[in-house]
Amino acid sequence: MHLLNHRFRHFIVTNIKPSLILQFHTSQSKTTTKPSFPNHQTPKTPNPDHEQLTLNQSTILETLSCYNNDWKRAMDFFNWVESEHGFKHTTETYNHMIDILGKFFEFDLARQLIDEMPERDHTTFRVMFKRYASAHLVQEAIDCYKKLGEFSLKDETSFLNLVDALCEYKHVIEAEELCLGKESKDEKFKDVIGSFEMGTKVYNMILRGWFKMRWWGKCREFWERMDKDGVCKDLYSYSIYMDVQSKSGKPWKAVKLYKEMKKKKGIKLDVVAYNTVIQAIGVSEGVDVAVNLGREMVELGCEPNVVTYNIIIKLLCENGRVREAYKVLDKMSKRRCAPNVITYHCIFRCLEKPNEILGLLDRMIDSGVSPNIDTYVMLIRKFGRWGFLRPVFIVWKKMEDHGLSPNEFAYNALIDALVEKGMIDMARKYDEEMLAKGLSAKLRPELVKGECDD
Length: 454
Description:
Layout: H1 2-24, H2 57-66, H3 71-83, H4 91-103, H5 107-116, H6 122-134, H7 138-146, H8 156-168, H9 172-180, H10 190-193, H11 200-213, H12 216-228, H13 235-247, H14 251-263, H15 271-285, H16 287-299, H17 306-318, H18 322-334, H19 341-348, H20 354-366, H21 373-386, H22 389-401, H23 408-420, H24 424-436, H25 445-453
């Protein structure tokens, strides 16, 4: 089945994907099975052998991920597998498509999909809350929650998902007012918060929201408010506030909190809390002390995870100890803790030789870790700053070969590199391609001037 999925994904990326613009957007649109959506002509399968392929949910989700930065192609593919291959979309595939539409503010289409879904779950509306909040449409997110009674999902889980989305996307003021403000006690808010208890979980979300805003003073005030309001602080509360202290330039205070939690509060630390302390102690007392704390963590029966190793690798790289970082990378697989994308990012950032970077990228792919769009953007920018175009195009080709649709950051990084080398015509070509996809291009005087000259 894995081979089948790989073949189908490869077929979609190499055969259908390049034809989408040519077939869908240059030919006259035909009526699809879903006339409520923009009309795009569905592709015809050129290879009859693929008619025998059995499509499954994981294959569809993986292919949709390839179109994560191009909602029109994603929508075309979503409709095509249903109309041409009879695939019955699941709640998960609908949720993924709704997430892509929300990313591009296509909320009308997202709501149409929700209406036609055979079944919705909490994830469906968590996606909507997240996309509304990221678009700064706070009232729309709240209104969406109010309507969940239609789907029998207006419950505490959905409310917590709403609050979490608001806090995640820096609408903490609104979240705090909704949950703990004076207005929250008014009758007009009863249909929003119901009879839900504003306990530790809600307070932790808001504390984390202030942390994401990096409003350190508000973090301290809210930490103190938790005591005043009689809220019981748990392991997650301490983990967030230790992170606050560490990120606000006071890692020694995070270490002090760690000792307080361990001795006075009697709270047993988990791997997340240890990771926060290892990061803080590595910054304040050095990477060797952090490594020793990692050993202590293992002795106490708490197994390190990939984040633990990533922190150690990052600390080593920041201290110029790259060879030791490679040794830690080698040990991870032996200890049944496979590296992830972030592991490689930590090392990429400190490397300075193009061949070594490309070699590590090949090692990453060969080990089964798929680079994401951020990986490619980072490397394109890095090579572009150095003025090396050949590795820029090597990285760009690898990105396309692995089926990732470039986003605005990837395009802008490539165009910047081309402009820097004086390749204006080619830069303009990618600029036009980017705009055709509805992505935001930077205003570049060089390209504007070139157009005026023409």
